Structures are given as C-alpha cells and as structure tokens.
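User: Some background: our group keeps a shared notebook of sequences we're curious about, and every so often someone picks one and asks for a predicted structure to add to the entry. Today it's my turn. The entry only has the sequence so far, pasted here. Could you supply the structure so I can complete it?
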Amino acid sequence: MLDWTDRDFRYLCRLLSRHTLLYTEMVTTGALLHGDTQRFLDHDAAEYPLALQLGGCEPKDLAACAKLAEDAGYQEVNLNVGCPSDRVQNGQFGACLMASPDLVAEGVAAMKAAVNIPVTVKTRLGIDEQDSYAFLHQFVTAIDSADADALILHARKAWLQGLSPKQNRDIPPLDYDRVYQIKQDFPSLHVDINGGIHTLDEAEEHLVHINGVMIGRAIYHQPYLLAEADKRLFADEHAVLSEHEIVEQMLPYIEQRMREGRPLKSITRHMLGMFQGKPGARRWRRYLSENAHLKGADTDVIRQALKLLV
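Assistant: Of course. Here's the predicted structure to add to the notebook entry:
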C-alpha cells in the first residue's frame, strides 16, 4: 500500500495490536541498492513484528536486499508478485512475474540462502487470460519448491492491460474458494488470504480454511478494527485501550517525529479514521484536515480535535 503503510501508520497500528504482523510499503531492489538505503529501511523497533516488502526480479539483487532487511532488524522479507501498476510492469516485477514462475522461484531460493528470517511471497490468482487453476497451481508449485515460508494470495486475478491499480482492487471478482483449494493441495505450505476482507468476523471465517489473513484498506480507513485482534485472533486478553487513549499515546511519538522534521499533516492523515462510526467522527476528521497543514501546527491541533468528540 504505497504511501499508506509508512512508519507513522505502522506505529499507530502497533499501539492497537501487539501481535499483528505489519508490512512496509513495497520498496524496489533498485531503490535499496542504489538509492537512499537508510531512508527506505527506516523504522522504529516498536513496530515489530515487521516485514519488509520487496519489488524486484533479479535473484542476486533480491538476496542482497533481503540481507539488508535482516541486518536492519526486520523479521520477514516479502516478495511482491501482485502489484499490477504500469511502473512496476516496466521494471519487470510485480504481478507480471506470475508469467515467470521459475524466475520467482530463483529469487526466493536466493533470498532463503542469504538470510535466516522468513521469506514469503504475495501474489494474485492469475494475470490477464492466464487465470486458470492449473496456471495458479503451477506457479505455487514453483514457489513451494523454492521453500518459501508463506504464500499470501490476493483472491483476485490482475488485469495488466486495461485496468488501473485501483480498478484491479475492485473489478476482478473475488474467488476465495480458489485460495482454499490451494491450501488443500499444498497442506504443508503456510497460506494467507487477502482481498475484500473488512472485519474480524470475516477474518475468523477465513481462518477455518487457511493459515492467516491480510487486511489492508479496511484497517487503514478504520484503524480501531485492530484493537480486538489480539484477543480474538491471538488469544491475548490484555486490556484494550480506547480510541482516545490510543491518540494520547501517539502524541509523544508525533512530537519526536516533528522534531526530526516530519510535518504534522503527514502523520495525522493516517489518524482520520480512528473514530469511524463514533459521535463526532466527522468533526474530528474535518478539524485535522483543515488545521494540521497550517504553518506552526503542532500536537495542540490533535488535542483540540479530541475535544470535538463529545
């Protein structure tokens, strides 16, 4: 989720759940190896457990980046073979790699040989007209043979031509049964499901069939959904903080980030949905949206916004 799951949003998520595995935005191997490596690897240890998601296709480069991730403290490295954007296709990685299962397997094997942390793959059910179950089965066979530690399946295919990335999130129909069938056919492979999952109730229904559930946009738009995850999905009965308490706990972090040069608006944009469905939620969103970007804005903006929730 490019521009969404940055370290500020991940810090918020970690206040809501101690156990949920968090993922970075996708970072390309080229950016890590030839760009500002430190900036792309930057995170707070408070975010753990945390996975770095990579985009790339050259096994040697993937291995080098996986090692960078491990050395930086990440607990998992994930290869994105599901992103359908034109920019990703032009770089020969993302969903178009589904057409090259042997190359993906080489990349996974190279990463596995380079690190001791789990190496996982996130992908789709197929691409364009290559969307039969036989095609998916062949792809998963290659991933499994490379000893990937887990497979995350977005339960839609991707249209590489004709649909935008946004349309690819909604238009291709969901097929959860196909993900369940992959788990049945590869019982020793850890299989997670992704796509169109909006509640923890839905997550629990999927967990009857597969090993894990990835939720993206639903959590972004309503972060407090994560507050019950530890109790319901990880059997951890710790006390759940209220929305107000979570926001209060964010304040020292925000003040530190602002001292480092991070604009207030870049952090509060991730907090707009915190009170979704609660009285005053619209006033909260409006006040942050109208004031967080102003010159001199600081955490008093958030405190004032909280007063509107009565």
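Suggested note for the entry: The CA atoms of residues 205 and 227 lie 18 Å apart. The beta strands are 22-28, 50-55, 76-81, 119-123, 150-154, 191-194, 212-214.
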